[in-house]
Amino acid sequence: MTKERRLLFFASITLLLLKFASCRSAKYLEDNQALVTDVDMSGVPKELKESAYAHVSNEIRPNSVLNLTIYNLFNTKKGRYKTQKIRQVGEAPHMLDSSLVELSTDQIQRFLYTKGYFRAHVSPYLQVNKKKAKIDFVSQLGDPFYVQKINYDFEDSVFSQIYADVVKPSSMLQEGMQYDATKLGEEREKFFHAVKNKGYFDFLRQYMRVGVDTTMEGNNTALFFKVSNPDNGTHQRYKIGQVSLHVLPGDGKKREVAQERDPVTGIVFADQTSRYRLKPIARYMYIRPGQTYNLSNENLSYDRLYEMNGFRSVKISYEKVDSNLLDVSYELIPRPLMANQVEGEYTFSSGMSGFNIGNTFSHRNVFGGAELLEVKLRYGVLFDPRLAGNLKDKIFNNDFQVGVNLVVPRLLLPFGIRSSGQFGLPRTMFSSSLQLFNQDGTYSNRYFINTLNYSWWQSRNLQHSYTPLVLEYRAGRFDPGFRDRLIEEGYQLYVESNDRQYFGWGSQYAITWNAPKLQKLGDFSFARGVVDLSGNTLGILSSLFRFRENAAGMKTLFGVAYLQYAKAEADYRLYRYLGGNRQFVFRFNAGVIVPYGNNSELLIFEKSLFSGGMNGIRAWQARTLGPGGYNRSSIKASDDAKTEQLRLNLRNLDQLGELKLESNFEYRFRLLDNFLGAKMNGATFVDMGNIWRLRPNTLNQEGEFKFDKFLSQIAIGTGFGLRFDMDYFTMRLDAGLKVKDPQFKDGDQWVIRHLFDAKDFKDKYRQTNSPDRYGFFQYNFGVGLPF
Length: 787
Hints:
Elements: H1 3-23, E1 35-40, H2 46-53, H3 65-74, E2 76-77, E3 80-81, H4 98-114, E4 121-129, E5 132-140, E6 146-154, H5 157-167, H6 181-196, E7 208-213, E8 220-227, E9 239-247, E10 260-261, E11 267-271, H7 278-282, H8 295-307, E12 311-322, E13 325-334, E14 338-349, E15 352-363, E16 372-383, E17 395-408, E18 427-439, E19 443-457, E20 462-478, H9 480-488, H10 492-498, E21 501-513, E22 524-534, H11 536-545, E23 556-557, E24 560-561, E25 565-577, E26 583-595, H12 640-649, E27 659-675, E28 678-692, E29 715-725, E30 730-740, H13 758-769, E31 777-783
Parallel strand pairs: 1-5, 6-8, 9-11, 9-13
Antiparallel strand pairs: 2-3, 4-5, 7-8, 10-11, 12-13, 14-15, 15-16, 16-17, 17-18, 18-19, 19-20, 20-21, 21-22, 22-25, 23-24, 25-26, 26-27, 27-28, 28-29, 29-30, 30-31
């Protein structure tokens, strides 16, 4: 039997065992019980099957094979299910229950009525054999009913005009359409909001009534849309009188404090905390004196004030002070002014282990306008047990970072253009960070960056981010001994590109489509594009003022060479909702960086692209894939000891590129509705891609991009993941398995063939690539979904 067939055989046997184990659940039942193993829906149109299935009671749907198997392991005793001390793991068996079958039948029939099948009749057919039950909900639909006529009756002609102007142009209700109660409900909701936005504060949904006449000839219906007046005869339109803003203390109790009326906005302001200014908050109070009452303005005010992230409670209340006048009161309760958060994690990769620890201090109201100040400290260390000496001598690298961010909830611009915040909260961010990195005996880096960023929303789904200023300084330096060895082995170009100082002055722009939909189940696309340019301004100035050149021929500013490059990245995703908690995601990610001008021949280490990691090709650790068909065994020194040491020191330095292509396919589904207080979801995935250099390089043999070779250099990985949904955040554990590894040649790239003779394969790999060790599996732990 070939290795491929053995793998297929093993996978098939595993699935059969799981299926067999779940089906054996029937033997644990009492004689009068039956396990539901199949639910079908005969006679239901294909396009409605999934929606109809949602009306089947969860307790009589077939169990998940894996979940039921887990439940059986912990909750059976002496050939029967436990009735006491039941452990809440897995999923309890879904047994046949006649009352739930009857309830589901009724619900399915009601659902079909809402889709125009008024003569539908649903009957359940049960088949029980050896304590296993199959349920088939058989529907006799009859012909669907169509809307022949729509009658409108508005007792107030003003409402008739509102409907004609606001609702009718985009109405889903059309004569001749198949009856659909969902569209009817949407129509009522649109009209309700249209009326409330015209000032009718007291208008209720109860004033709208919809009737359906099914007595017409044939399969035709007539709809009656009636809007009645209140008992007092007319609907009153309201205007806004006085608007007041009260900032309350943490206990939410009002106290007597001095009130001031703003002469510009007319808003009465009372701050019981003495910490806030009116102007930064008032710009997101869309209900103003003299306006007509508008429900959309109320909802918009709630959204933006909460988005400022400085208030834990926002309340807008109204008081009638005249026959058509409303006084409005905003009441805000701030979040705690300051907070401190400590985080830590243990890391393990490629036989090395270490830890990261960080501290974040936050101040949520620095200048009285809910501005957020964050000060972050982080330290990480990685130990390599293969290094000689005591614990201190085994430090492979350490990394210290400190950063300061100031987020202002508005656009701070020197001219009059500003975002109204209609579609999202605009922000201005000032950021500064310093990184000190050292890899023992190899490389050290000092990196300092300052940025100014503006982000705003053009529409509900289109976001812009513009960073007009990216000011950075970096000083990278190789250990003298390691540097000499690199030069000795012919890696002069690599040394020059990393063992140097540089100064960067550039800008960035990003555009994002459909970001708000990422947390929802549905059919949609997501796209993001980023452009990063650096050195163009300095290039022009250097031509005008004749900047000095260093020994390498690069022009300098304050004695430090400056960068020139163009970088672009694109990320496209397609989300498809498959019903229930099932979703399919396709992602394509591409990037390219082109150094030119002042550093046209040099790859920029910090700006380089890499592959692998928890959000990319998950079967590879970050920065360990590619470029192209590069294999570290190509590194040769004058003797074996030098070769092995050189490979060790080049880790994370040699597997970078200037071009990246990646694609991911992921299927997501629900495993458990309740697992230790969280929802446990599962995912299976296939990842493909690689990185390449744009030019040949002696360090990365076979690493450059060539049209006739790049397809054969695509890496393929697959795997399975668990996601623990805590509502506020998601923890993720993914296990990736290498299938095709481009560092090998021809058929040897399909490393999945060696999964069952892994020891021999790994031993041979270590002989040619030592001290690197080959791993088929890569485990990734993270927070949030990968994409």
